[in-house]
């Protein structure tokens, strides 16, 4: 019974988080911002205000595929946000610029996250192979190695949280200061950003729970000896 509850939690929590972000985005993507600025214009305005003239803004296909590429110094906004004038589009654009500002200022958690990318990638790809072999064949060293690899991926997800929250905080400050939204639109903008943050919180929470469960399995194998 406890395993069923655990299984439902790790399945339903991410689904609930995705529902919240899609629901908030859909609602406020239909609400025009007071300035009439497109997401691209919002991003460009904030970038210029912060002296980031070398960072480009370009459209990209896909739904909520918005991201900042620190290697190319490019902010890519999904087409609806790039060309649209919604509150949601302005919020997402400002959030991605928040990452560009972090990059400029050498924000510590952003640098830490970048340094963890190779380790986290290896951990995500290799951990479950080692873990499954370790559990099925009762090979404790393989299970432990898989847990260590998985822990690296979990650390990456946990470090992502302050990076995302900080980018959203910067977004709220910048989006008002450049006149992209009025003060009375802050509530709607914050709802979009908070909903997006839930997906990262959910992913980190599920990853930590799974890591704890695997550690318990490993300690249980030791106790059985």
Automatic annotation (TrEMBL):
Transmembrane segments: 116-135, 142-163, 192-212
InterPro entries: Zn_peptidase_2
GO biological process, one term: proteolysis
Domain of life: Bacteria
One GO molecular-function entry: peptidase activity
This protein's UniProt keywords: Hydrolase, Membrane, Protease, Transmembrane, Transmembrane helix
Name recorded for this polypeptide: Zinc metallopeptidase
């Amino acid at each position: 019974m406890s395993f069923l509850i655990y299984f439902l939690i790790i399945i339903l929590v991410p689904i609930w988080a995705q529902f919240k972000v899609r629901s908030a985005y859909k609602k406020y993507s239909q609400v025009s911002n007071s300035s009439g600025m497109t997401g691209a214009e919002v991003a460009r305005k904030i970038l210029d205000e912060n002296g980031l003239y070398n960072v480009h803004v370009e459209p990209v296909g896909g739904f909520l595929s918005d991201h900042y590429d620190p290697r190319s110094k490019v902010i890519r906004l999904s087409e609806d946000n790039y060309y649209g004038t919604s509150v949601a589009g302005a919020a997402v654009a400002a959030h991605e610029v928040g990452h560009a500002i972090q990059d400029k200022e050498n924000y510590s958690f952003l640098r830490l996250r970048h340094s963890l990318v190779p380790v986290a990638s290896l951990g995500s790809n290799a951990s479950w192979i080692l873990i499954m072999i370790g559990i099925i064949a009762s090979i404790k060293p393989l299970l432990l190695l898989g847990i260590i690899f998985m822990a690296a991926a979990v650390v990456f997800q946990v470090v992502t949280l302050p990076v995302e929250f900080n980018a959203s905080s910067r977004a709220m400050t910048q989006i008002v200061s450049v006149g992209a939204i009025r003060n009375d639109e802050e509530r709607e903008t914050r709802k979009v950003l908070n909903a997006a943050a839930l997906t990262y919180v959910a992913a980190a929470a599920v990853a930590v729970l799974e890591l704890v469960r695997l550690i318990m399995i490993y300690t249980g194998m030791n106790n059985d000896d």
